[in-house]
Amino acid sequence: MFSLNHQTQFYKGKVRDVYTIADQYVAMVVSDRISAFDVVLPRPIPFKGQVLNQIAAVNLEATKDIVPNWVLDSQSLPNVTIGKKCETFAVEMVIRGNLAGHAWRTYKNGDRLLCGVVLPEGMKENDFFETPIITPSTKAHEGHDEDISRAEIIERGIVSEADYLELERLTQAIFERGRTMAKAQGLILVDTKYEFGKIGDTIYLIDEIHTPDSSRYFYADTYEALQSEGKPQRQLSKEFVREWLMENGFQGKDGQTVPEMTEEKVTEISERYIELYEKLTGKQFEKQLLSDTETEKKINEVLNKLVS
Predict the structure, then answer these.
(1) Residues 6+ apart with CB under 8 A from 24
(2) All domains of the chain in start order, with CATH
(3) Tens of pLDDT along 33-44?
């Protein structure tokens, strides 16, 4: 934990440490911690925080013509973004272009209703939906996020109807931009989630977007062949971590133990994160290592310019 100038609040999330500054700004430190099934795994993944922060920076910059975002500085430090403090909407806007992950597990169990959305019959795992579907979840500070429908969100007053409909519109537009960017790099953006907040009457896109922690990507060049053969898709996402955990008997349920994370497994996960950065951005990843002392000093230098 850092000691930051003008700090008024601190929140330690699963993978991010969030510092509120002068009740107007936020310094988000993206750690190398990794979570799956809402459980923080016992070993950090080298350079994961830098990967997430820098992918998010590219995508937030590329979508700010659709919706303003919270970012003021994401370039000064490899794994830190500093931006505006927003009043956060208590839902995550999950959008899915393909029947994969949680949606597929629901479908495979015979359910045809997910977050109030009716799922078509006759689909196979990883098939495209005719149009992307939005399956929101509540945002839990502790424990598991929970699926919720549009109707429940509005009925319970979690988000006003007018704001929620705007969040849906923005979610579709940002996802379409993300799919276009992914396609240019030979990838398919399969599903992702967005978080939004407000300052006054203005809605802002907050947190991070289109990273392997919040998104799933398939390789486009092999999609059709693998799908027609009924084989698993080649993917770049955190799903491979979840699959490894499930293969070893862990899904975050009571009484289950996280399998041993060997040095080889940690290195493999780190390399997969770096691979996604390079594939998605088209840039070579440059590893940057800063001590905690250097990081704290640089954050304070940025904050001193914002808060007089």
Answers:
(1) 84, 85, 307
(2) 90-237 (3.30.470.20)
(3) 999 998 999 999
